[in-house]
Amino acid sequence: MSDSRIAAASSLGVLATLRRGVQISPQIADGLWLTLALAVLAAAGRVVVPVAVQRTIDDGILAAGGPDAGRVALMTALAGGAVVLAGLCSAMVNVRLFRSAEAGLAALRVRAFRHVHDLSTLSQGTERRGALVSRVTSDVDTVSLFVQWGGIMLLVSSLQVLVATALMIVYSWQLTVVVWLCFVPLFLVLRRAQRHVNAAYTAVRAKIGALLGAISEAVVGAETVRAYGVARRTGRRIDAAIEDTRASQARAQVLVSSVFSGGVLVANLVLAVVVVVGTLLGVGGGLSAGQVVAFLFLVQLFTGPVQMATEILNELQNAVAGWRRVLAVVETPLDVVDPPHGVTSPRGPAAVSLRGLRYAYPDGPEVLHGVDLDLPPRTKVAVVGRTGSGKTTIAKLVARLMDPTSGQVLLDGVDLRDVRVGSLRERVVLVPQEGFLFDGTVADNVAYGLRDERDERDERCDAVGAEAGREQARARVAAAVDALGLTDWVADLPAGLDTPVGQRGEALSAGERQLVAIARAYLAAPDLLVLDEATSAVDPATEVRIARALDSLTSGRSTLTIAHRLSTAEASDLVVVVDDGRVVEVGPHAELAAAGGVYAGMHASWVAQTR
Ligand SMILES: Nc1ncnc2c1ncn2[C@@H]1O[C@H](COP(=O)(O)OP(=O)(O)OP(=O)(O)O)[C@@H](O)[C@H]1O
């Protein structure tokens, strides 16, 4: 079995991560060469201005034969043209980058989301679900920031610094050395400072996280807070969290403004140094007036990139970290793979056989130690056993939510791993103890039992067709409710089938949620139903409704029920007793109850307790 746990981050190096990232979202590199060419033009355009200024002064204003107005006009026009060209190129670079980055990252989001969805519930269980969601959303956002802006800015800025340096060397290598001697330490200091800024912002994010946690706990747990009269204590906790957040925000802001102002100050001081050293060199005859002024312009071309470079390198680090985390998700092998040439399992009464079934959860001990079992078609089978004996694990393997470590689950003689997943889901449906309800109406939630192919067909249809599809779906929901004997229950709901169930079905009682789950399974109409019997206590009227609905749901179907109540076992055709990962007894209830084995013991103590 593949390791189904999701790594915290991929272990690729920086360049390998970038390469893999672009491989997964090739749209990022679409038209990159043209974008690069435009970026080079933009950088070159900016460097034209200092040259034009130098020529204007030296060959125009200070021309040997007096000011040359024509030359000044020509150079001014040239500088103007270069600025416009550089501006246009920059704008085009931005638009192009934005487009390709968004297309690439949208593809990455889709891929990451699909993958998270396809990962077994098992893999998702090992990672906090919120953290997984963040990988598909905010981690992709950090990548997006860099791809849209950072990467190309880093390139353009480096180009700008290189071209400016080359030009400066042509004018005066001494002054160039002075400029570099000033800027290299500035860069190093800024880089260090940026680390402190990052640490400060990490602290801010942590404080905000704690604040949100405290507030949401107070909101979600409002009833408990009121019931225990601990509103003051909760309030104090929130106040403290707010104060913590304010203090850390203030610290971060002070740090940012000091770093920024410091950078600007040093950059301006460098200008002053250039003026002084340049003038001294000029007096010595090494530099013309135009060249000193051009130098001042060239130094300006350094300031932006050096200040930005620290930020961009930071962005690069974040992006690589984000990319690594997203890649780790995308590259986690699926543990339930849809076979490439899977067979379509024909509909009809379903027979299931388990052959030498063994299973161990990731990093855990083996919990099933070779289970052999034959479940004939159209039989109601109850699986009973102590808590932790492996009943749910068997159910999940039969529904192929995961694959066995060894052994086979056969559906009508075919290994589940050879059956198309779509076909399998049509034939086998697992109804968990607490079926998830989506925020919508009762009808919407029941309609989740209709297979995806219907939705796809609806999507392809025009609006009228889709409307007809919706009406048809609703009619089927109503028919299901009717067939399960739930019409009176629906009629009692505030808005009938259109009653909103709230988030996770909070607006319904536990029993009502079960009814919705049963109706949903009925609509799915599987050949084999795997039921994890709900354990939550419900009122007697709902209990009767649930029992009646379950009867209609299971009628004529093969059913494998994880029975938590022995009354369910009594009512089934076959009882399977699981103990410590092994099937220890199989047979009809009456036979086992009389046999004096494990089941007889369980049954006797249950009878003693309940009757
Ligand atoms: N996701 C999981 N990761 C690791 N171990 C698990 C996981 N789920 C179950 N187990 C372990 O596997 C064993 C069998 O669990 P299983 O849920 O199949 O038992 P069960 O008979 O259904 O119990 P219950 O009646 O309490 O639901 C237990 O020891 C349990 O701790």
Commentary on this structure:
By secondary structure, the protein is of the alpha/beta class. The chain has a six-stranded mixed sheet with strand order 6-7-8-3-9-10, sandwiched between helices. Strands 2-1-4-5 form a four-stranded antiparallel sheet, covered by helices on one side. It starts with 13 loop residues before the first helix and ends with a helix. The mean pLDDT is 84. The radius of gyration is 35 Å and the shape is elongated. Among the domains are: 203 residues, ABC transporter type 1, transmembrane domain (ABC transporter transmembrane region fold, Up-down Bundle); 189 residues, Rossmann fold (3-Layer(aba) Sandwich). The chain has 21 helices and ten strands. The longest helix has 53 residues. Bound molecules: adenosine-5'-triphosphate (ATP). The site of adenosine-5'-triphosphate has 13 residues, from helix 4 and helix 11.
Find the CATH topology of one domain: ABC transporter transmembrane region fold
The major sheet is characterized as: 6 strands, mixed
- Which bin fits the share of residues in helices? 55-70%
**Range of strand content:** 5-15%
Q: What is the residue-averaged pLDDT?
A: 84
Task: Give the gist of this structure.
With 611 residues, the chain is of the alpha/beta class.
Which characteristics define this entry?
611 residues, transmembrane helix, Rossmann fold, membrane, six-stranded mixed β-sheet, single chain, 21 helices, ABC transporter transmembrane region fold, alpha/beta, binds adenosine-5'-triphosphate, 65% helix, four-stranded antiparallel β-sheet, elongated
